[in-house]
Amino acid sequence: MDTKISINENMSLGKRFFKYLAPSVVAMWVFSLYTMVDGIFVSKGVGELALAAVNISMPFINFIFAVSLLFSTGASTIIAIYLGKKDIKSANEVFSFNLVSIIILSIIILAITFFNLDRLALFLGATESTIGMVKDYLGIIIFFNGFFIVSYSLEVIIKTDGFPILATVGVIISALTNIILDYLFVIEFGWGVKGAGIATGLSQVFSTIFFLIHFLRKKLYFEFFKI
């Protein structure tokens, strides 16, 4: 899929800005739908307590995205500076170091949250009536947290690589996958909030694979570099 944006020197700043702005806005809007979609399906397939459990879990999911945003924004900025200097080797080093760092961090997050799931659920505001479902939902999400972080980080860096439309396509594919799997797991299979968590997690797996395929192609700025 050739979705690279070509920007020539005669193009106005406004046009350059819009070519990146529009796909980015669409991607962020789609990102905001993930937990909303889970909430819709669990409210229909399970009940109001399940909806409450998903909403209670949202701050943790936002935390995961915030961590990814922290690393991806910093890495993409440094990468862009190196690309501007035509220093492709250094850009690849930053790209690889960022990827390794967020994978290690996701493992740390998994370990901490797995052994403190009860405390995390109570900290987020779970009550006696919702704590079981909150733990069911979060217990699934934490195992996929690495895919959340890596997927969003790659999505941001793909834009730096000059492919904002491709990044948006990946996000849309992930969102559609989430909707389809939510329907199957929650409505058809009756897996409840666990099914919603699995659906959301798998959608991030698919988007991560989609983005990694981009970086495994030839003739791109970025490639995996031994650090």
Automatic annotation (TrEMBL):
Subcellular location field: Cell membrane
Alphabetic keyword roster: Cell membrane, Membrane, Transmembrane, Transmembrane helix
Pfam families: MatE (PF01554)
Transmembrane segments: 20-41, 61-83, 95-117, 137-158, 165-186, 198-216
Annotated Gene Ontology cellular component terms: plasma membrane
InterPro entries hit by this protein: MATE_fam, MATE_MepA_subfamily
Domain of life: Bacteria
Membrane topology: Multi-pass membrane protein
Gene Ontology molecular function: antiporter activity; xenobiotic transmembrane transporter activity
Broad class of the protein's primary localization: membrane
Protein name per the record: Drug/sodium antiporter
Species this chain originates from: Clostridioides difficile
Gene that this polypeptide is encoded by: mepA_5
